[in-house]
TrEMBL record:
Gene3D superfamilies xref list: Homeodomain-like, Tetracycline Repressor, domain 2
Organism: Nonomuraea longispora
Name assigned to this protein: TetR/AcrR family transcriptional regulator
Annotated InterPro entries: Homeodomain-like_sf (IPR009057), HTH-type_TetR-like_transc_reg (IPR050109), HTH_TetR (IPR001647), Tet_transcr_reg_TetR-rel_C_sf (IPR036271), TetR_C (IPR011075)
Chain residue ranges for the region called Disordered: 1-20
UniProt keyword terms in alphabetical order: DNA-binding, Transcription, Transcription regulation
Entry superkingdom: Bacteria
Length: 220
């Protein structure tokens, strides 16, 4: 028996192929689009990806985390605008996330959340993957608006975030109704009407920025 060499690191296993990981995630999205979350199986994902179940489980310990990782690639890192126009930015920013959630088949998020809800770690992963990123992005827009003096400094930021995001999250989670740009605009205008230091001035500024006097005419 050869003596063990001091300081020598143990041999690592075969390095993971990132291309296989990408292929598995793509296959997961394809199955989600066709069958939904409830009917998705690791066997079917493995078959489509040309992988094995053990290879998938080495990367993602269960179906929930596999699906969350796949959905994260679809949602991507959406960028929100910073034009200096609070009304314009919030409308456009929220619509960025509406468009992202539209890429998820109706009926996926509800069953997935129900599957994650009973386990604290899985629920935390669900929230940090799908809901906290857009919430943080909208929070940045609100902070910029407060710094400009457009919004009241004493506003309850968490409550405002919930009010602005509730339309998107509620309909994305349950998939019972579509979300239109007009509905987003109405929601933003309703909230800003209560937290803006001077809502008519914000409305006038947004019309000036867009160069279209018809913009937000329903709220003027």
């Amino acid at each position: 028996m050869q003596p063990r060499q001091e300081g020598r690191a143990p041999r690592a296993g075969r390095p993971r192929d990132p291309q296989i990981g990408r292929t598995v995630l793509d296959a997961t999205l394809a199955v989600l689009d066709e069958a939904g979350y409830a009917r998705l199986t690791i066997e079917e994902v493995a078959r489509r990806a040309g992988a094995t179940k053990p290879a998938i489980y080495r990367r993602w310990p269960d179906r929930r985390r596999l699906v969350l990782a796949a959905l994260a690639t679809r949602l991507g890192t959406a960028r929100t605008p910073d034009t200096g126009c609070t009304l314009c930015d919030l409308n456009e920013g929220i619509n960025v996330f509406v468009a992202a959630f539209r890429r998820i088949r109706p009926g996926v998020l509800g069953p997935l959340f129900a599957d994650c809800a009973a386990e604290p770690r899985a629920r935390e992963t669900f929230m940090t993957t799908l809901f906290e990123p857009p919430r943080a992005a909208v929070a940045e827009m609100i902070e910029r608006a407060v710094a400009r003096g457009d919004l009241r400094a004493d506003l309850d930021r968490d409550l405002v975030l919930d009010l602005l995001g509730s339309l998107v999250h509620y309909r994305a989670l349950f998939g019972h109704a579509p979300i239109t740009a007009e509905q987003v605009e109405n929601a933003v205008a309703t909230v800003l009407g209560g937290i803006a230091t001077d809502y008519p001035a914000l409305l006038a500024h947004s019309r000036q920025v867009t160069g279209d006097p018809r913009t937000h005419t329903a709220h003027g």
